[in-house]
Amino acid sequence: MTTVSPVAVPLWRRMLPHLLAVLFFLTLACVYFSPLVLNDQTLAQHDIVQFRGGSQEAATYRAETGKEALWTNSMFSGMPTYLISTRFPGDLSTYLHQIFTLNLPAVVANLFLALLCGYILFVALGVRPLVAVVGAIALGFTSYNLVILAAGHNTKSLSIAYAPLVLAGLLVTFRRNRWLGAALFALGLTMNVRSNHLQITYYLLLLVLVFGIVELVYAFREKRLPDFLGRTALLGAAALLAIGVSFGRLYVTAEYGKYSIRGRSELTTPSPSAPAAATSDDAPSGSGLDRDYAFNWSYGVSESITLLIPNYFGGASQGALSESSATGKALTQLGVPPVQLRDYLSQLPLYWGDQPSTSGPVYVGAVVCLLFVLGLFVADRRLRTWLLIGTILSIVLAWGKNFETFNNLMFDYFPGYNKFRSVSMALVIAQLAMPLLAVLALARVLRAHRTAAAPVAGHPALTLPAADSAETSDFKRKLLYAVAGTAGLCILAWLLSLGANYASPIDAQLQQSGFPLDAIREDRASLLRADVLRSLFFILAAGAFYTFSFSVSSPLRPLLQ
Q: Is the full-model pTM beyond 0.70?
C-alpha cells in the first residue's frame, strides 16, 4: 500500500493572506480618512484641542529642558501633569505601539489598529483569513469607534482597539496553547492598559471575568478543575506583567484619585429634608463619584434598540437634514434666508432619547445582530453562553438609573465601579461580544457539510446538492429562526413607535424661539421609519444570501470554508 506524504506549504504562501489582509486594512483606513492622509487636513476633535491647551506648558518645558514637568499651573489653578501629559522613561511599550500602528498619524492609526487587532482575534480562533477580515471590519467599524474619534477620545479609542488582542490571548489560552495564549494576553493587556483609559479596561476585564465564571462552571462539571486553575494562574501572571509595565501611570492615577471627586470627601451636602443628625461630623462620606453624577448618561431601556436600528431615537444631538425635509420646508416658509437655512439644518437637535446629549448611537450592524442571534443556535455552547451573558450585562449596566435595582447594587458594592461615570459606555462590552459571536456563527455556517453535488448543466463551476444533509437542514431551520427573530424585532420596534411623541427636553426652548416643532418631530419620525426599513432590508437580504449559499456553491466557497 502506497502512502502519500502531505506536501509542506511554503511559509510565504501561509503568510501571504495575512500580509494581504494587513495591506487591505491599511488601505481601508487611509481611504476612510483620505482628507487627513491626502489633503493634510485635521479632524476637529474638541477634547484634543483642550488637551493641547492644558499640556502646552508641560510640552514647552519638555522641549526646552528635556525633562518632565510634574506640575502645571495651566489647569484648575494648578494640578499634577501626570494626568495630562507625562512621559515615563524606559517605557518600551511605546515602540510596540508604533509597530502596531505603523507609525500612522493619529485617528488613521486608531482605525487601522482596531482592524488589525480584530483580525488577530479571529485568526487566533482558527477562522479563515477572508472571514477574519469580515470580522475585523465588523469590530472596527462599530459606530461608537468612529463617534468617539470625532469627539477626540483618542485614548478610549486605542483602549477599545487593543481589546480584541486581550480576548485572543484569553481564548487561545483555554482553547489551544496555554503558553502562546498567555503571551498574547500579556501583550494585549499591556497595550490596553498603556492606552490609559481605565474605564474601558475595567469593562474589558468584566467580560474576562464573565468568561472565567462560565469556564469555571464547565470545568467543575467536566472534572477538569486542575487544568482550569493552572491556565488561570498563568493568565494571572500575564496580567501582573501587563500591569507592571504601566505601574507608574496606575500608581499616580490612584494617588491623585484620592484628592479628586472619585475619592473620599470631607464635605457633605445633606438633603434639605434630611434630619439634623445627618449634618453631624460623624456623617459618612463616599469614596467614589456621586451616583446621580455617574448615572447622568444612562442609556434608555428602549434606546438599546439602536444596536439594531441606529437612528431610532434620532441619532446625534446635533444632526443634519436636507432642505427637502419637513423642517427645511417649514423654515423656508417662515422666510429664513438660504445661507442661514443651511446653517440651521446642519445642527438640528434630532436626538430625543433619555440621555442629556449624545454624539451618536451605539450601532453594531443589522447583519451583525442577525448573525449574533444565529450564533446563539450554532456556536460552541461555552462561547455563546459567555458572549450572551456579557452582552446582557453590558446593556443592563448601560441602563444605569433606568434599572436601579441592579445598577445601584453594582455601584455601591462592586469593587471600583463607583469610580467611573457615563455608564452608557458599558456598551463597549456588547460591541465586542456581538461581532465576535456573529463572525463565529458565520464561520460555523460556512463550514457546514453538504452531500455529494452534481454539476449544473452549462455551468460546470456551479453545483447543486443531491439532497440536503441533516446538518444543512438544521442550519436552514436555525437561520430561519434568526431572521424571524431580528426582522420581527424591527417590525415590533416600528409598531411601538406609532405611539411615540418624538419630543425632546430641548423642544421647550425651541418652542419659545418660534421653531417649527411639528416639522422636526416629523423628521425624527422619518429617520426612525427609514432606519427600520433599512435594517429590515439588510436582515432579509443577508438571510436570502445565506439561504442561497446552501443551495448553490461557487468558486469562492473554498476561500470562505
A: yes
